[in-house]
Amino acid sequence: MTFRKLAAAALLVPALALASCSGGDGAAEGASDPSADGDGATLRIGTSGTLPSWASEDAHVGHTLFPYQAPYDSLIRRDENGELQPMLATSWEYDETRTALTLELRDDVTFSDGAAFDADAVKANLEHFQQDALRQASQLAALDSVEVVDAATVVLHLTDPDPAFEFNLSQAAGLMASPDSVGTPEADTVPVGSGPYVMSESETVAGTQVVFTAREDYWAPELQEFERVEFRILDETSARLNALQSGQIDVTILDATTIDQAEGAGFEIVDDYQVDWHGLILMDRDGDLNPALGDVNVRQAINYAVDREALVEQNERGHGTATAQPFGPESGAYVEELDERYPHDPEKARELLAEAGYADGVTISVPLVPGWDAMHAALRQQLSEANITLESVPAQMANIFGDIGQQKLEIFYFNFFQSEPWVNVQQLLAENTLYNPFETADPELTALIEELQAAPDGDSIAQEINEYVVENAWFVPLYRLDQVVAYDSDAIDVVKQPQQAFPSMYNFTPAA
Amino acid sequence: MLTFIAKRVVSGAILLLVICALAYTLLFFSGTNIARNLAGDQATEEQVAYRAQELGLDRPLVERFFSWLASAASGDLGTSWFTAQPVTATIGDRLPVTLVIVTVSILLTALVAAAIGVAAAVRGGWVDRAVQVGSIAGDIVPNFVLALALVIIFAINLDVFPAVSTIAPGAPPSVWIASLTLPVIAIVISAVTGSTQQFRSAVLAQLEKEYVRTLRSRGIGEGEILFAHVLKNAAPAGLTVLSLQFIGMLGGVVIVEKIFSIPGIGSTAVSATSQSDIPVIMGVVIATVIIVIIVNLLVDIANGWLNPKVRVS
C-alpha cells in the first residue's frame, strides 16, 4: 500500500512501453565491434547526410557520389590524380567533330542480379538518366542518342561538343545499374550494380546505417580492398567526431572548428585538400534589383573591401586559402595571379564607389541563411569600412534555390564546387543556369564560352574566361575551403580525390 | 468512467483532425520550393515543373489535403519525398526508440524526483536547502551540455558506452541498453531537477492542511500520515507535473537524439522539417499528437482512480 500512490505514475507505462526489443540477429552488435568481422578488413565511414535513395539516378556531386561507388561501377574511373582511367569502358574516342564518342566496353562484367553488362545496358542507363528530368539530366544535356553497335561497342551522339562529357561519365552520369533495376522502385532501397560491394539488406537500416559486403568474383579485385563497408549516417559534426573518437567509425568528414580536436586525439587529416570555394555571387550584375550592382566599379569595390586573409583566420581558423577567382588550382582555368587580384584596400573601394557615383555609399541585401551568421557579421563589419552597408534578409535554406531562380535575391553566398572548367562554366556562367538567374551575358564572354565548348584542350580559353569574370567582378570569391577528412591511420589509409568533397571509394585501403 | 473516456477519445480525434489541417496548411504556406530542392540546384525549370507535377504540388491545397487525409485515414501516410521510404515504416521504426527513451526517463524521473522531493519537504533543514540548491544548479545546465559531458567521460575516455547509437530494428536488448543509457541519464538529470521542486511543494502544501494536524492529534504515526494520506492527496499534482514533463521530453529529446545520433522520431522530425518533407512531417505530427492525447487520457484516468472527485467533474 505504501508506495502505491507514487507508483501510480507507472500507469502511464503499459500503453506506451512498446515491445521494441524483440530478439535480433546481433548485427548491430557486430557493427560496433570492428574486430568481430572475421578475416577481412572493414571500412566504417561516418557520412554527413541521408542519401535520397540508392538508385543511381539520385547520385550527384560531392558527398552524394562516393557512397554509390560501393554498389555501382562507372563507365570511366577518375583516379586519385584526376586522370580518367578505363573502368566499364576500356577505351573511348571522339570523332573529329567531337560530337560522336565511341566507347569500347568490357565483356566480362555482370550485375549483382546476374544480368550481363553490355551496350544495351549502357543505352538503358543513359537514356533513363536523360529522360525523366532527373538530377543527372544536366550532366547529359548534350547527349542526343545512344547507338548500340555491338554488345561491346556503343556510340554516344552529342548535339554539340561538350568538353566535360567524359568527365561526367566518370561521375554520377556514368554509374551503371542493372537494366532490370533501372527506374524501378526497388532500386531506391536496394542498388543493383556491377560494383565491388553488394548491400547486406538484413543489416541495413534506412537513415541509420547501410552495410555492404564484398562481391564474390568482382572483375576488378584491385578496387575491392575491404570485406565490409559500413556507412553510419551521422548528421551532426559533433556526433561524427564523437563516433570517430570512441572507435565506432574509421573515417569521417569534419570542419575547421573540430580539426584541432581530431588532431589532438591522434587522428590523421587528409591534407592539402580543397574542393569548394566560399564566397558571394553578385547575381544582380545587370542591376535589375539594385542598380548599384550593375556598375562594375561597385562590384570591384566589394572585392577590394573584403579582407580575405582575416576571414580565413576568423571563420576557418586558418584552414583555407584566400582567393579572388572562382576556378580552382586543379582545373585548367586557374591563373595563380588572380588569387591576389583584389588585395584588401578599403580606400580603393571607396574611390571606386565615388567613381560610380556612390560617394555616400551603397546598400546591398544578402540572404542570411542559418549557419552563416559568423561569416555574415564579419563581412558586414569589413564592408562597412568601405561605405558598403550589408543588409540581411532572413532566408531559409529550404527556399533559397527557389528564391534565386525567381530573381528575388541580389547576392548569394555559399560554398561552390570547383570542378573542370566546362562544368563550372555550366554551373556558374551559362545563361540558363540557376546561379546566373538574371541571365547576364556579354558578347565577349559568350564568344569565349563557345570557343571553349569546341576546343579539345581549352585551358588557355578557360583561363581567359576566368580573367573575364574576375575582372568584371561577377563574384566575390573569398577563399578555398580546406576539406577536413579525418581518419584513424591505425585502421585505414586514405588518398584524397581532387575535386571531390569526400575521397572515392577506391581511395581507401586497409592500414598496412 | 466509460462515458468520460469516450468523450475524451472523441475530443482527441477532433483535436487531431484540426491539428493536421493546420499543420498541412502552414506547410503549404511556408513557401518552400520543394520541387526545386528535389531536382537539385542545376535542374532546369522544366525539370522542376516535372517534379512538382509528380508530387502533385500543382494541385490546389484543399484537394491535396483531402486526398492525403483519405489515405491517412486508411493507414497510408504516403512516401517520404526525400528518402523514398514509406512514412508508416519510418515512424514504425523510429517511434519505439523515442518512446523507450522517454518512458524510461519519465519512470526514473518519477522515482527519483518523488523521493528527493518528499525528503526535502518532510525533513526540511539542510536537506531541503541542499535540494533547492541542487535543483537550481541542475536547471542552469542545459541537457545538451550534460549529454556532451557524458559522451566525453563515458564514451570517449572510459569507453564503456558507445558515443553514437548502434540501435537498429531487431537489435538485442543489450544494444538498446548500451545505446540508451547515456541519453537517458542526460534527460533524467534535467527532468529531475525540474520535477523535484513540484513534488516538494505539493507535499508541503498537504502537510500544512488541517487534516494532517487532526491526524497527528489522534496520535497516528508520521509514517502512516505521510504514505497513507499526504502522498495520496499530493499524487494528482505530481502526476500532472510528470505528464507535462513527458510531453516536454518528447520535444526535448530532439537535441539528445541528435547528439547521440539516435534513430528516433526527434531526429526524423528535424531532418524532415529542414527539407520540408511534408509526408514525413505530417506523420510525425500525427504520431506525436496521438501520444499526447493518450498520455493526457491516462493521466486523467489515474487521477480519477486516486481521487473520485475528479470523475464527477
Automatic annotation (TrEMBL), chain A:
Pfam families: SBP_bac_5. One of its GO terms (molecular function) is peptide transmembrane transporter activity. Residues 83-392 form the Solute-binding protein family domain. GO terms for cellular component: ATP-binding cassette (ABC) transporter complex; periplasmic space. One of its GO terms (biological process) is peptide transport. Residues 24-43 are annotated as: Disordered. Transmembrane segments: none annotated. Keywords: Signal. This is Peptide ABC transporter substrate-binding protein.
TrEMBL record, chain B:
One of its GO terms (biological process) is transmembrane transport. PROSITE patterns: ABC_TM1. Belongs to the binding-protein-dependent transport system permease family. The chain crosses the membrane at residues 9-29, 97-122, 143-168, 174-192, 239-260, 280-299. It comes from Microbacterium faecale. GO terms for cellular component: plasma membrane. Residues 95-303 form the ABC transmembrane type-1 domain. Keywords: Cell membrane, Membrane, Transmembrane, Transmembrane helix, Transport. This is ABC transporter permease.
